[in-house]
Design a protein that fits this description.
Elements (H helix, E strand, L loop, with lengths): L1 H22 L1 H6 L6 E5 L6 H17 L3 E5 L6 H9 L6 E6 H10 L7 H4 E16 L8 H10 L4 E5 L5 H13 L3 E5 L3 H9 L5 E5 L4 H6 L3 E5 L25 E9 L4 H15 L2 H9 L3 E2 L4 H22 L5
Helix pairs in contact: 3-11, 5-13, 8-13
Amino acid sequence: MADTMNRQRRRALQAAALIGTVGFPGLGRALFPARPVEIIVPGGAGGSTDVVARIIQLPGGGALGQPIVIDNRAGAGGIVGTLDAIRSEPDGYTMLLGSLGGHVLVPLLKPKVGFDTLRHLAPVTRLVNLPAIILATPDFPARNLTELIALARASRQPLAYGTPGVGSTGHVIAELLCQRTGIKLLHVPYRTSSQSYTDLLGGRIPLLFTLITGVQQQVASGRMKGVAVTTARRVSALPNVPTIEESGIRDFDIASWYGLMVPAGTPAPQVDRLQRAIGEALRSEEVRTRYEDIGAEVVGDTPMQFAAQLRADFKRWREVIQTANIVVD
């Protein structure tokens, strides 16, 4: 008897839910989100990726009307968290913090990585663009990119530059610069950004290509020299560092990015609701200021615009990687 009553109760609840969403189509959408929304961060707590997610956490939750929970799932260079997100229910309650490095460069460099960004993930919105910067030791003879190019061409041996690793954003940007200018540089990969900073500060390498996060104070204090930033406009956090375009290299507007994605198949109304709420949070002065403090530029684009950026990035960096013959073990 109890089993029969339970079955009847479940059927009644299912019927009520069906009536609420079919008979009143707006009601189902209005109920989303009805519980907290998760952002999977494919990196450890306290890292640069984590910081980007936590800046939007409270304002984004306020705009959604439900808390946003940050779930750090580090491992295999971000692959573990990405696969967990892809395998989650495509209902809008799980988002992934994606990045240029983790979700464009990694699939291009590791074809057997286990996921296809364009096929397995759907874009919601880019949160921020993050410029890269060319750094040098304070006594490096070149003050800007024009002088750096002239020095590289006159040098008998290729100038060495460090990056956080083979296939990192800094590495592919350096290769693109070499391809555009015809200069030759010697890549010195490091396991972490902190190791590369230490060797630059110690004078063991003359140059470093890296993302701008974490180096503003070193440049402002004069411990590192900012040779150029890679975006078309100067960065507000380092207004005295010129751009690559200012050295005469046209159409060189390169930035890494962080953005929110959901598993493919997530219904469009849920994606749109997430995008509108996060976009509202990104327009707040407090959020914008906090991102600018780490050198990031707020974007807040639409899913369609984000998708177009993804396709363009795959095309550009596939060509750079193939031309430079970059191979990751």
